[in-house]
């Protein structure tokens, strides 16, 4: 077995174990998501929030579980919010984002077109967690997405891949986890630092003209390491470390996407920079 394939088995097991222990079981798919307006295709964007928001889940996530907190947060602020499932593997329910990432970007392309057609909007904003903050960059760069997207907000995105630093040390805490997922997961291989996919994605620069980029990271990220690899370079980029806004924020990779309202406040600022307000520890009460 090739060295990177051997490495992916523990990585897959750790990520799966984290998802199982940190995320509630899914109860629906995107088109039937529990929603106070979430995935409501009759929603029409308002003058104050003219663009629909598409949420892009992370590796081993899905269109429901990844967004049980952030989707209602944005709906309550007047946004039309949608989420998709992508990167599904045959015989692997609920845990998505495991297929080839270029193919997942094609699924995002189709979904964005569906949302724009339903809402009548000319552009959308994308918010993604982990792989979901990185994968859309392929759509923007190679599949014509830049003409249809105003802003991309990545929460703990693995923009330049991840090392396996420390992840294998977690395996003893999850007996049997390695057997839960096959190593035949191209979506994981694509995320390893130095992969052919990431080399192509980042060649010629991290960004494309006409799109605003925000990266929201935590220094306690134990999955995308080192955390500084998440940040982007280029015009129209804002890189945010949540500990610079709230030193008491101890969120790791999963928590920053699933329940961190300090990070969510920065998402809201990125979606509506004209009305941005200071993010502090008190933002958890917003």
Radius of gyration: 18 Å
**Uncertain stretches of 5 or more adjacent residues:** 1-35, 165-182
Query: Helix/strand-derived class?
Result: alpha/beta
Biggest β-sheet strands, sense, barrel: 6 strands, parallel
The amount of beta strand, in percent, is 5-15%
Would you mind describing this structure in some detail?
This protein has a six-stranded parallel beta sheet with strand order 2-1-3-4-5-6, with helices on both faces. The chain is 31% helix and 11% strand. The longest helix is centred in the N-terminal third of the chain and has 20 residues.
Task: Write a brief caption for the model.
This protein has ten helices and six strands; from the N terminus they run αβαβαβααβααββααα. The chain has helices spanning 3-22, 70-75, 101-119, 131-134, 136-142, 186-189, 196-202, 242-245, 253-258, 261-271, and strands at residues 53-56, 81-84, 124-129, 149-155, 212-217, 237-241.
Quickly list its features.
6-stranded parallel β-sheet; alpha/beta; disordered N terminus; 286 residues
Topology:
Elements: H1 3-22, E1 53-56, H2 70-75, E2 81-84, H3 101-119, E3 124-129, H4 131-134, H5 136-142, E4 149-155, H6 186-189, H7 196-202, E5 212-217, E6 237-241, H8 242-245, H9 253-258, H10 261-271
Parallel strand pairs: 1-2, 1-3, 3-4, 4-5, 5-6
């Amino acid at each position: 077995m090739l060295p990177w394939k051997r490495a992916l088995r523990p990585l897959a097991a750790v990520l799966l174990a984290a998802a199982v222990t940190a995320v509630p079981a899914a109860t629906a798919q995107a088109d039937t998501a529990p929603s106070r307006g979430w995935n409501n295709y009759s929603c029409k964007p308002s003058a104050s929030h003219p663009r629909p928001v598409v949420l892009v889940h992370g590796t081993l996530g899905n269109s429901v579980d990844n967004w049980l907190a952030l989707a209602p947060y944005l709906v309550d602020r007047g946004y039309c919010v949608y989420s998709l499932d992508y990167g599904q593997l045959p015989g692997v329910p609920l845990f998505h984002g495991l297929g080839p990432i270029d193919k997942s970007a094609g699924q995002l392309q189709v979904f964005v077109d569906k949302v724009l057609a339903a809402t009548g909007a000319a552009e959308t904003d994308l918010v993604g967690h982990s792989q979901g903050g990185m994968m859309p960059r392929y759509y923007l760069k190679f599949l014509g997405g830049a003409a249809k997207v105003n802003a991309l907000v990545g929460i703990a995105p693995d923009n330049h891949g991840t090392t396996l630093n420390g992840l294998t040390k977690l395996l003893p805490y999850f007996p049997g986890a390695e057997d839960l997922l096959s190593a035949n997961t191209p979506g994981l291989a694509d995320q390893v630092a130095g992969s052919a996919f990431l080399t192509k994605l980042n060649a010629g620069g991290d960004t494309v003209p006409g799109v605003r980029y925000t990266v929201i990271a935590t220094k306690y990220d134990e999955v995308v390491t080192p955390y500084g690899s998440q940040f982007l370079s280029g015009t129209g980029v804002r890189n945010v470390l949540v500990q610079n806004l709230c030193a008491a924020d101890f969120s790791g990779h999963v928590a920053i996407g699933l329940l961190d309202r300090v990070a969510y406040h920065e998402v809201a600022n990125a979606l509506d920079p004209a009305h941005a307000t200071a993010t502090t520890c008190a933002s958890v009460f917003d």
